[in-house]
Design brief:
Family: Belongs to the phosphoglycerate mutase family. BPG-dependent PGAM subfamily.
CATH architecture: 3-Layer(aba) Sandwich
Protein name: Phosphoglycerate mutase
Number of helices: 6
Number of strands: 2
EC number: 5.4.2.11, 5.4.2.4
Keywords: Glycolysis, Isomerase
Radius of gyration: 17 Å
Strand order of the largest sheet: 1-2
CATH superfamily: Phosphoglycerate mutase-like
Catalytic activity: (2R)-2-phosphoglycerate = (2R)-3-phosphoglycerate; (2R)-3-phospho-glyceroyl phosphate = (2R)-2,3-bisphosphoglycerate + H(+)
Number of domains: 1
Order of helices and strands: HHEHEHHH
Length: 175
Amino acid sequence: MAPFKIVLIRHGESVYNQENRFCGWHDADLSLQGVNEAKQAGQLLKQNNYLFDCAFTSVLKRAILTLNLVLDELDLHWIPVLKSWRLNERMYGGLQGLDKAETAAKHGEEQVKIWRRAYDIPPPCLETSDPRWPGNESKYSMLDQSIVPRTECLKDTVERALPFWHDEIVPAIKL
């Protein structure tokens, strides 16, 4: 049996990355640098003779655009692509959209570091009435509102993504 390769690519720089804001599930566009990064990733994969049978991405525009730019460089727009909310970035809750430096000044650098790096300590929750809560977006309308996160720690993110890994990605690898 031939070995399988899985390639993980982070999205290119987003406008929120550029502005030093917590992005989370906010659907930020790629910056010009992010577009160039995605193209360079595709070119590097092409130079190293990578070919893919399928691709997976979140439903966040920055990830979808990154994938499309990579596939364009590889001339692989025809392969199946499965998008899932389970592959979305971590939901930053009440930090989403906030400037990172201002948040550190307000709450203290150590507290922000805990929210960002602790495995099982989430940032403050968003209320479902908050316009930043993703449950208010049509792209998540097919989900039971109780499973749309109001915040996530890294542990929650892993628990959200693992079912997709086991149910979709692993079977695709075994084909």
